[in-house]
Amino acid sequence: MKKITFILVVFLASSLTILAQTSITKIEENKTIDLSSQREKFDPARNANNDLQTAITKAKAENKRIILDVGGEWCVWCRNMDFFFLRNNELAKLRDENFIWLKINFSTENGNKEFLAKYPEIKGYPHLFVLEKDGIFLHSQDTSPLEQEKSYNLQRFTNFLKLWSPKKSAGK
Q1: Which of 155, 124, 147 is nearest to 21 (CA)?
Q2: Three-class SS string for the chain?
Q3: Burial class (CB in 10 A: 0-12, 13-18, 19+), 162
Q4: Sheet of strand 127-131, all strands in order from the earlier edge strand to the far edge
Q5: Between the CA of residue 76 and those of 61, 79, 80, 83, 137, what are the distances in Å?
Q6: Mean pLDDT across the chain, nearest whole number?
Q7: Could you give phi then psi for residue 63, rounded to 5 degrees?
Q8: Which pairing describes strands 137-142 and 65-71: parallel, antiparallel, or unpaired?
Q9: Which of 8-22, 120-134, 144-158 has the lowest mean pLDDT?
Q10: Per-residue pLDDT tens for 20-34?
Q11: pLDDT in tens, 42-54
């Protein structure tokens, strides 16, 4: 009986941990919001070259840098990153004030091989490439150093975004 109770407790604890990392986040007592409808998804039908040109135009107009977020809907860590930003408003604000965030699909449907050949090799997903506002490559970021347990580390992610944020002039 003790073994069954122990196994049940371990199972429930594991289930709660998994549930905490899904798209459902508790907002107030007895209210939840499904964050999955709020996240932009990786779309294999998108044209990465066209999307980058649009991002460059916007980045120049807004004096922001560009981050290419390479991954796919198949990637648990990619989805975790999206939910991490949705749960951390200040981090999302820092991202949105300084970067145009562009999802680049990598999947069996569309590996964007020709597009990604312009950048350093990717060893794991998600992977981030930081570009200047004109599209010039600046930095390749493996996201594993930003991870913590089954999510991301808020301080490390904040430091990464601050490090690569564009320098703002005194008048802006």
Answers
A1: 147
A2: CHHHHHHHHHHHHHHHHHHHCCCEEEEECCEEEEHHHHCCCCCCCCCHHHHHHHHHHHHHHHCCEEEEEEECCCCHHHHHHHHHHHHCHHHHHHHHHHEEEEEEECCCCCCCHHHHCCCCCCCCCCEEEEECCCCCEEEEEECHHHEECCEECHHHHHHHHHHHCCCCCCCC
A3: exposed
A4: 99-105, 65-71, 127-131, 137-142
A5: 33, 5, 6, 11, 26
A6: 84
A7: 50, 55
A8: unpaired
A9: 8-22
A10: 444 444 434 444 444
A11: 999 999 999 999 9
Q: Return the percentage of the chain with pLDDT > 90, whole number.
A: 73
Output the six-digit token pair for 140.
């390749």
pLDDT digits (tens, 9 = 90+) for 85-116: 999 999 999 999 999 999 999 999 999 999 99
Phi/psi-derived region of residue 170, left when phi > 0, alpha when psi is between -120 and 50, beta in every other case: alpha
Residue with tokens 């749960």: 87
Dist. CA 144–CA 68, nearest whole Å = 16
**What distance in Å separates the CA atoms of residue 54 and residue 52, rounded to the nearest whole number?**
5
**pLDDT for 102:** 98
User: At a CB cut-off of 8 Å and minimum separation 6, what does 31 contact?
Assistant: none
